[in-house]
């Protein structure tokens, strides 16, 4: 059986039979394993030699160019005390990008002169990517890492930059200029850091793997930055853990900081046992846990209420000579307060002070709040006084905790006094503070004061929340005036609390979204009893719910009632109805509605027309779709993204590829974003008609914009490129398909 070989840059790798490779093109997972073997230097598949960096071979200057470059170089060297703008003024008009690089060759050993000359050149035009990379290389070789970092950051900070193509070009130029301009591998660390800081995690991962081909591994500190940025949100934590598990296989040596990042991430996911297991593994792997490692685990166990494990870990820390830090103590004190062990919490607090750790505002507030919740306001106030004696300034949260304690114990006058003191000291009470005091007034039966405070709260621009209303409802119920939250709305309007139409509309909207339509309708009736008349938004909200339920008769009845009340429907109202008609298959009614709108002078928008066009496209009735599109133009309604995407997919489905192609071009020219589904439809349509050039152009355009093609589309181009002998691009597409299609599908199935 014949063998085949395929070239990857300077290396040639021996592959399996032609038939086996053909199988790879239709099954992505084996190819993923194959690519991993290449990057890890699998001895059975490839040479273990690292790829060498390319030699730098720029364009050679002509004799005239050489003379010009020599003149500039000599001038700036000999007259370096003068401003460059004066020295170089005679040469400025003739200076080309190539001249910049040739001059840099002559002055590369004079770092300050390099920077001055480069800055001067940048003021006149943007440097080429090659020139930028050269200066970055020189900066790193001169140990000016801060400047190198800033230059790369400035490049990525420019607006409207195409991330995908810019990344590839920058990496290519950085590698190309490395050998002759710096040869300091830290340049790659800096670039990796910039990618991570910019949130370009996929590119950072690709760059890490690319460096492996040259025998380079990014430093642990840079990898730690990668872990940290990945773990900022829950979506990235799993990726951070994956990186942590995989990178040691290629030479990354994690340190205590690395472990601490992952331990913290696991705790964020509430995987405390896994985090604790990793802590135990640290020592076995030759990495000693530090106080941060233990404190993070302790905080995790505190969060889930595992007091005994927390105490055991603290003892373990002390045996190892690690002193608990403020973070450790604060976590333990918070747990003890939450579990009602306030005496023990204060004992830990006193031990903390004996250890020389100065308590902060947070730990004092935790204790104050804990004692107040238990009703032990005396001790809480003693700690409050102690806090001020130590010149630790209480904040609004501390004041609110004490006010809450006084209110709980019925000491409303003391609470009010403290509330006024809080304001006099420049602290702004928030919704929680006001609600706490309102609750105190309500519990004391002082409803007038409670409502006055509520009005004051509103006047200050604060929005009462459900807790506020619950407190007021509770107070009114105790006076026999209210029983439920719905009755509260009615009674509050009667008692002078100024709830407005927006409050009711928000509640009605929430009920509709929750599927409680009957309650929403009842609340609308109660609004009128309370003196608030439903407005256009109220009716539109209810109509939308009826339309989505397919109850068009009830929606139409609401429209009539709305018109009878003299309320003017908006275009949103009619779009709700239009969407309802279309979803119910009542396209003729939808068209009659559109005609009626135009007769009444109500201008439809793109959404109105889109609803109809989408349904006609689904029915494959492109003649009707085109008529509606023409009507849209006649009314001078501008199409939007959805309009074009609906039409493109509709024409592709109807095999009108010429029309679909025209619409795509028009859409792009107008600056609209083509949806992935439209690209997929266009590519599939052109491929079926053997219009391979158009299909390929669209596929590359789609990839350039970072859109994910369907798996079927990837299969088309994997097979096409394989048959053409473009093996490296075939492999690249396979990898991309795995990452974007199969991995994405797996994630969706998991979620």
TrEMBL record:
Annotated source species: Juglans regia (English walnut)
Alphabetized UniProt keyword annotations: Repeat
Annotated protein name in UniProt: Pentatricopeptide repeat-containing protein At1g05670, mitochondrial
Matching Pfam families: PPR, PPR_1, PPR_2
NCBIfam families noted in UniProt: PPR
Ranges occupied by PPR repeats: 255-289, 290-324, 325-359, 360-394, 395-429, 430-464, 465-499, 500-534, 535-569, 570-604, 605-639, 640-674, 675-709
Family: Belongs to the PPR family. P subfamily.
